[in-house]
Amino acid sequence: MNYDWRFFLKKEWGKPYFRRLMKSIHIEYNKFICFPKKDNIFSSLKYCHFQELKVVILGQDPYYKENQADGLCFSVPNGIPFPPSLRNIFIEIKSCFDCSFPSSGSLIHWAKQGVLLLNSILTVRKGYPGSHKNMGWEFFTDQIIKTVSNEKKNIVFLLWGKYAQKKIFLINSFHNHYILKTSHPSPFSAHLGFLGSKHFLKTNEFLENKGVPPIIWR
């Protein structure tokens, strides 16, 4: 991960829970096929610099099928067909900016602009969604949310679905953060608010009002 993240998170690495977590993950990756690849587990902190952070999008855990997870929530590598939730995200972006549909599902270009694409759980066993739940990742990623909330101002938090919205208590209400909530982009719930929410448009309007360059979502 980038040095600016290490400065805030290095205190977590020495804690007993994190050592136990790393030991458990090491065992899981040795015994089973797990996602994402080890080199990509911390991709959300690799591509998005803390100093340039503007937006936080919260997911739950990585895609559990072959070749999909790349360490960024909702994102897939180049050449991989779009999962349904990602397709709905692109549909909403198209409705906001009247742009063409993208050819790639990789969201690295968002992360490099200051969008933290953070799953609450950073790893998963192949074929078993939620298999790495309660191993310690949630506590670690909660600390990331708290760090962002307490150390930054005017951050946009996009909370899609009930799971992400449970994290609202971690967000400091005194730092003028902008919280947008709606349903999850999954096909089961996208029609309940996500589609038509204009979250990407509202995010850019907020950033521009604060004198911050908007995100190029297209």
Written account of the structure:
The mean pLDDT is 96. It contains 8 helices and 6 strands, in the order ααβαβααββαβαβα. Helix content is 37%, strand content 11%. The protein has a 4-stranded parallel sheet. A two-stranded antiparallel sheet has the order 1-4. The protein has 218 residues and is of the alpha/beta class.
Q: Supply Rg.
A: 17 Å
Distance between the termini: 25 Å
Structural class: alpha/beta
Number of helices: 8
Beta-strand proportion: 5-15%
Indicate the overall shape.
globular
Q: Please state the average pLDDT score.
A: 96
* Residues in helix, %: 25-40%
Largest sheet: 4 strands, parallel
β-strand number:
6
Low-confidence runs (pLDDT<50, min 5 residues)? none
Largest beta sheet: what is the strand line-up? 3-2-5-6
Short description:
The protein has 218 residues and is of the alpha/beta class. 37% of the residues lie in helices and 11% in strands. It has 8 helices and 6 strands; from the N terminus they run ααβαβααββαβαβα.
List the topology elements.
Layout: H1 3-13, H2 16-31, E1 34-35, H3 43-47, E2 55-59, H4 84-97, H5 108-111, E3 115-119, E4 124-125, H6 137-151, E5 156-160, H7 162-165, E6 178-182, H8 199-209
Parallel strand pairs: 2-3, 2-5, 5-6
Antiparallel strand pairs: 1-4
